[in-house]
Amino acid sequence: MNTAVRTLRLAGREVDLVFPSRSDARLQTSAVIVTVHVVGMAALGFAVSIPQVAAAILTAGLIDLGMTLRSSGKLVWPASGVLTGSGVALILRITGMERGEYWSWRGWHWFALVAGFSVLTKYLIRYRGRHVFNPSNVGLVAAFLIVGDRFIEPLDFWWAPIGFWMLTVYAVIVGAGIAITRRLDLLVMAGSFWVFLTAGLGVLAASGHCMTATWSPSPVCGTQFWTTLAISPEVLVFLFFMITDPKTIPSGRRARLAFAASLGLAATLLIAPQTLEYGAKVGLLGSLVIWSPLRGLFDRLVGDGERVVRSELQSPSPVPPGSSGGFVRGLAIGSGMVLLVVAIIGAGSPSRNPVLAGPPSTAVPVVIDPSLLPEIHLESGAAGVNIDINADFAADVAVMLAQNLALESEAIRTADGSLLGLADAGGRLDEMQERLATAVATGERLVDIYSFESLALSVHDSLDQVSAGLLLTGRGSVDHIIYDPSGEEVSRSTSAFEARFVLRQVGGERWLIVDVESGGA
Asked: Are 114 and 139 in contact (CB under 8 A)?
């Protein structure tokens, strides 16, 4: 597919320069992925930088160039390396990376390491003259399993709310994906994978499957889980540009269809037990790592269409119509489908009933006058979650924060620990329960009454794979009041405060305080 050839004198000898052809599917796929990169960073808030993307592409490209020069004596455009590097950069993310850090060098070495390892697998892990794994796929899975989410994580299933730029990305991925796979006669294979994956995920969703995602304030369950994955841009990239690598799939057409269909079901089974989106994403990618070495088995067991037809024509004793053969085959297929459904439901049992620590969506016994709160400033980082963060939403969350703080104070004043469950969760709940126990034991019930002068709202970036959180940065004054067990005020003092309150929607519709990062009571 490389056509243009020129000569370069290198180290005292003539070396052929082989340039890419515009018809090379690898070049076209790389162009698609780079286009997604550009739109993602410019309009969708991808948390990735230009140096990170460049590090992955340059590292993989240079290694591919060097390995090809060593084996062929030619300088060939590293189409495979560039594709591997761009694919790694599309999926790989640095944990805690901020949106809009376009020129950040943070974590660039992870991109270089993963991309470099990925392209090397093409040369080091081979069988009968072909590489065994899709390079970017095996490199990413190895990195996520070995390194874990402390430093790196995969791209989210959900990218952004549906809008012009999100529809543009869909058009690019689907349009180019159909065009490229159709030209390679792999479109039906890609469609087969999608049909069986979405069918399996449908069974999983119907059973009550849930996962926790960093972009969702509450567990992603049922229909939302199914639709999110079924139309996820990451899933579409996986099926159009990763599983259809001609070098790592069976040769026969029927074998490819069987390979893709079973891969979709295998991916479902690996996703099923995962309670975090991180695990679900690694499960999806990992299914191809497991299935790629089996491509020869599919060729032997299924074969291509021509061999199957020939064997049927040469069969000396065809099964007569009306015999029991059709019934047996139907029974086997039906039994297999039932067992598969049972397996999917059984595999998903760990994530069937997520623990929702928060209370139901009910009224709380505290009334807050919204007019006493300052206007909420929405910071530029208040994006990247699948909720509409606007002025009205911000005002509602500010009222909930004030209610939660008032409930904390009332819980300590009255020694009523049940009120804390309406206000707090996680580490903050543990902290306030200890504070309440101390107040009851000492007889000095110290409560804090907050008065806000300013409030700013942004999305909280957590290093843990937990549900989406909000960060409210508040400034003002706080009255420290000590009550005795009878409820009489003993003393009072006032001080200024600046605190960062982390809120998370861990159950129902209320946002509860899960942490106070600095300042605060």
From this structure: yes
Distance CA 403, CA 126 (A): 62
Task: Please state the φ and ψ torsions of residue 102, each to the nearest 5 degrees.
Answer: -65, -30
**Phi/psi zone of residue 233: left (φ > 0), alpha (ψ -120 to 50 degrees), beta?**
alpha
Q: Which residues pair with 14 in a beta bridge?
A: 9
Percent of the chain at pLDDT above 70? 83
User: Which tokens hold the place of 258?
Assistant: 């069987």
**Segment 186-210, tens digit of pLDDT:** 999 999 999 999 999 999 999 888 8
Q: Contact 433/457 with Cβ under 8 angstroms?
A: no
Tell the residue number behind the tokens 């065009």, with chain if given: 179
Q: Calculate Rg over the CA atoms of the chain.
A: 29
Q: Which residues pair with 8 in a beta bridge?
A: 15
Q: Give pTM, 2 decimals.
A: 0.78
Q: How far apart are CA 64 and CA 135, in angstroms?
A: 11
- State the number of CA atoms in the 13 A half-sphere of 156 facing the CB: 26
Distance between CA atoms of residues 386 and 384, nearest Å: 7
Which residues, in sequence order, are CB contacts of 158 under 8 Å at separation 6+?
Answer: 213, 215, 216, 228, 232, 386
**What's the rounded Cα separation, in Å, for the pair 506 and 356?**
6
Pairing of strands 445-460, 376-378: parallel
Size (the chain), residues: 521
Residue with tokens 């623990």, as numbered in its chain: 355
- What is the spatial distance between Cα 11 and Cα 24, in angstroms, rounded to a whole number? 30
State both tokens at 504: 């998370």
Q: Do 412 and 436 touch, CB atoms closer than 8 A?
A: yes
Question: How far, in Å, CA of 82 to CA of 63, rounded?
Answer: 10
CB atoms < 10 A from the CB of 324, how many? 9
DSSP for 55-94, please give it.
Answer: HHHHHHHHHHHHHHHHHHSEEE--HHHHHHHHHHHHHEEE
What confidence score (pLDDT) does residue 272 get? 92
Mean pLDDT of the chain: 84
- Residue 36 sits at φ, ψ, to 5 deg, of -65, -40
Beta bridge partners of 473: 456, 500
Query: Residue 231 burial by CB count (10 A; 0-12/13-18/19+): exposed, middle or buried?
Result: middle
pLDDT per position as a tens digit, 77-109: 898 999 999 999 999 999 878 777 889 999 999
Q: Which SS3 state, helix, strand or coil, does residue 287 take?
A: helix
User: What confidence tens digit (pLDDT) does each residue in 40-52 have?
Assistant: 999 888 989 999 9
Nearest to 504 by CA among 218, 95, 213, 157: 218
